[in-house]
Amino acid sequence: MAEFLLQIKAIKLQPDNPFTWASGWKSPIYCDNRVTLSHPTIRTYIRQKLSQIIQEEFGAVGCIAGVATAGIPQGVLVAQELGLPFIYVRSKPKDHGTGSMIEGEVIPGQRVVVIEDLISTGKSSLHCPWIRKRRRRITTKPFQKKGLKMRPSAPCAVRNSVP
Predict the structure, then answer these.
(1) Which residues does residue 112 pair with via DSSP β-bridges, in sequence order?
(2) Between 130 and 78, whose confidence is greater?
């Protein structure tokens, strides 16, 4: 995976002018996983690997959730590959309409895999409403454990049962 990211120049280095991540961390390295969406071969590889790992690590799940914003396209691709429903989680509730924070059909008791594109502190994943309420019952498994061999800025899944 790292080779793919280097080939498409998704990894940026700025040791003299560190990037500020969403977590507030300063880092001389930035990985723009959104760039992978423009490369069908790499996009397919990621979709297939994430799907494979979800099946191996989590077994039967009922839904895939993507965290706004960059977790949404990866989540949609995985949900399509696995033939599962998809929902997405906004970073904050809408200020119009229904005021929803979660878009899509959420079924109580359903096992959900939450997909992020980058992980540093995990704050945006833990921001998901049902995760905030049930932190003690959550299993997190960064995908660096198998297959993708990526570090903290890796696609990740968080499994939980929806309330």
Answers:
(1) 63, 160
(2) 78
Length of the chain measured in residues: 163
Residue-wise pLDDT for 44-63, tens only, equals 999 999 999 999 888 889 99
Domain residue ranges in the chain: 2-161
Q: Measure the CA–CA gap between 70 and 34, rounded to whole angstroms.
A: 7
Dist. CA 130–CA 159, nearest whole Å: 11
**For the domain with range 2-161, which CATH number is right: 2.30.30.40, 2.30.38.10, 3.40.50.2020, 3.40.50.2300?**
3.40.50.2020
- Integer Cα distance of 121 and 20 in angstroms: 13
- DSSP 8-state symbol, 90: -
pTM of the model: 0.75
Range 89-120 burial, b when 16+ CB lie within 10 A, else e: bbeeeeeeeeeebbbeebeeebebbbbbbbbe
